[in-house]
Amino acid sequence: MSTRTRPRAHPDDATTTYREALREGLREALTSDDRVFLMGEDVGRYGGCFGVSLGLLEEFGPERVRDTPLSESAFVGAGIGAALAGMRPVVEIMTVNFSLLALDQILNNAATLRHMSGGQLGVPLVIRMTTGAGRQLAAQHSHSLEGWYAHIPGLRVLAPATVDDARHVLAAALADPDPVLLFEHGSLYNAAGMLDPAVHDVDLDSAAVRREGADVTVVAYGGCVSKALEAAEALAEEGISAEVIDLRTLRPLDDATVVGSVRRTHRAVLVDEGWRSGSLSAEIESRICEQAFFDLDAPVERVCSAEVPIPYARRLEEAALPQPAGIVAAARRVVS
Amino acid sequence: MAEFTMPSLGADMDEGMLSEWLVHPGDRVTRGDVIAVVETAKSAIEVECFDSGTVKALLVDEGTTVPVGTPLARIGTTAEARPAESRPAGRPPVESPPASTPLVRRLAEDRHVDLAAVHGSGPGGRITRADVEHAEPEPESAPAPEREKTAPTPRPAKPARSDNSTGERPAPGRVKSSPLARRLATELGVELSDVVGTGRGGTVRAEDVRSAAAAEGARRPVIPDAARAATARLMSRSKREIPHFYLSTTVDMAAALEWMHARNRELPLSARLVPAALTFKAVAMAARKVPELNGHWGDDGFVPAEEVRLGVAVSLRGGGLVAPALAHADTLSLPEVMAALKDLVARARGGRLRASQTADPSLTVTNLGDQGVEAVFGVIYPPQVALVGLGRIVERPVAVNGLLGVRPVLTATLSADHRAADGATGARLLTAMDRLLQQPEEL
Predict the structure, then answer these.
(1) What is the reported pLDDT for B94?
(2) Which one of A240, A297, A332 makes the best mutation probe of the B interface by having the most chain B beta carbons within 10 Å?
(3) Segment 207-246 of chain B within 8 Å of chain A by CB
(4) I need a labelling partner for B190 at 20 to 30 A (CA). Which of A190, A299, B183, B396 fits?
């Protein structure tokens, strides 16, 4: 990958990228807890398919940063076993599309063992994977299936959208006694930002209000948060004040923040890179209708991906994905 | 050709405001159909017509105040108005939009056709697709922009996706409004149908309701004040003109309540009786036995009424009273009395009484028992000559057959017009009522 970078020389420098922030989180976890190790396809010698673990093999050695064979089911299963045995494994799956090969391990084992053992067994496993489109990687590498995982009880599903959340999310995920899925949107790895020195952790139970507003609530997560913020900026120029909520945790959903915001703005636009039918956005819309029906002044709008396999051609791919212009148009429809 | 005139909706009504037409010229109406809403000093009342036929012309515009008796509409009574229009007796048909399928409604909306004006050729008068396709569009509509799907305006007339479009159309007769707007309308006491919607497709939104509420507050005094004033006028007249006398008796309710509880065990929850159904029925039957108190005092003295139209005093939430009537209250069965009472109170409080419910009662009952008082000595509604007051049913030590017992008792009072009746007449009414309540199975 041409975008691969060496570990930064000055970790205290406040400007960082999403990729570097994740790497710092990994480095911190590997340093502070002997039970933590990283495994997955190409995470060691190659430095990770998206360059997240670059340099960690050299720093922590092959016991702690392990390259695995190309078998998602096998190495996720191994991670579950290690977690059951008291380790704190971090398993990387290249993309969410490939995670389907390990769906049996994730759903039938990781998510269920606490329940089936009457609480005797826990699976403190963190699975990281890339999700989302926008980089012309075509239909087998570009889908957003995190909404499927958010359907499964027994899992916690996270989607960090900012460098601060990327930096601190792993520590919080490792602290969870149950399996946690971490979705890193592929288009965010190069996103640069200032780390807030005052932030030392992530509250995994709360959605974050990224921008306050009074006229419409825009709910987004992961790769769509920056698009929502861009749309809010454009809307502000038209005199429409949009509140942008970053869900941050897709399961369990923070209803209180979303519904509380809709109760103030009376309108909602939901942005979801998943397909519309049966999507996470459908679930959020349901909850808004269940809990804030008589506060709604307009039908809830959704901006989702077109219901097609994500196309390869650049313009088609752009057209298939939620874009700021579509969010702006949806916000206008509910406000005007 | 028949004329539909401004009805007299109470002894004190000499004019009324035609606030809403519920029919259009050309509509078929059947005797008993509610065709207009008339606003009096007390409330808005749905008015039925007394003829069957076709509405030929509306003679008075909405919002116009005219004297009682003024012709409001002409109704062409053709012989062809099907005589065997068999509707369930005693229940006027509710006005409903013509039967049509969702497809037909969508088509009508797309083509700007008013379904109410379309003659249905399908089974049971149902409007078919062909009927809509052959119907004339409404004149004021401009169908062109509706078709442009790719309008780059900030407010696209129609989203291209089909899964959004079903919410675009209101059911006929329903005001399209947001949930928040509906909640606000209830809270602010705004009638949604009076609000002009500025949202997509004329949807009424919160802002529209707020501005309507602000405008309404500035424009006209609220109805409760009018009701208060009407009550004030009527009661002053009563005390000025009517020499009242008052009687009171204590009724042992043990037998009636015991019978009622037994009966309720057999009835579905929604139909269960309350003591008021029994006491009201008893008053109505007593009034039939004492016709000297069931009627009206006019210029020529007392005129007995032909039936017992039992007035029921209902206090309005905003203040003031109305006393709509239960027709033939003495002949209704107890479940019928119960259902009619519920309907009367709901309609009175909703400001939507039917004309047949406001025509002069012949005797009024006021029941303040549920307000916790033990006795009420009321003021007669002129031109009636009597009013029965009912208090709360309370348990009291009472001598029964020479022994002291605890019994549920009710204080029933009579306010009567001394011009029309004497104390002995009044006593007969109260004792008749007492006797009936001791034999509840006779009610």
Answers:
(1) 44
(2) A297
(3) 207
(4) A299
Which residue range(s) make up the domain with A315? Answer: 208-335
Tell which of A165, A194, A223 closes a domain: A194
- Report the candidate in A319, A297, A296 with the shortest Cα–Cα distance to residue A306: A319
Rg (CA), chain A: 20
On whether both A185 and A215 belong to a single domain, the answer is no
Q: Which of B154, B167, B206 sits opposite A299 (nearest CB)?
A: B167
Q: Are B297 and B417 in contact (CB under 8 A)?
A: yes
**Top mean-pLDDT range of A264-273, B60-69, B163-172:** A264-273
pTM for this one?
Answer: 0.53
Series of mean pLDDT values for 10-residue runs along chain A (336 residues): 46 79 97 97 95 97 97 98 98 96 97 96 97 94 96 98 97 97 96 91 95 97 97 97 98 97 97 97 97 94 97 96 97 93
Q: Is residue A202 assigned to a domain?
A: no
The interface predicted TM-score (ipTM) is: 0.73
CA separation (Å) from A186 to A50, A263, B75, B179, B392?
8, 33, 74, 39, 75
- Compute the average pLDDT of residues B389-410: 89
User: Cα–Cα distance between A26 and A19 in angstroms, integer?
Assistant: 11
CB burial of B203-212 (b: ≥16 within 10 Å; e: otherwise) equals: bbbbbbbbeb
Report strand pairing: A249-251 vs A156-158: antiparallel
A294 touches chain B (CB under 8 A): yes
Contact A297 B167 (CB under 8 A): no
Residue B354: per-residue pLDDT: 78
Residue with tokens 């006929």: B172
Alpha carbon distance B187, A160 (integer Å) = 42
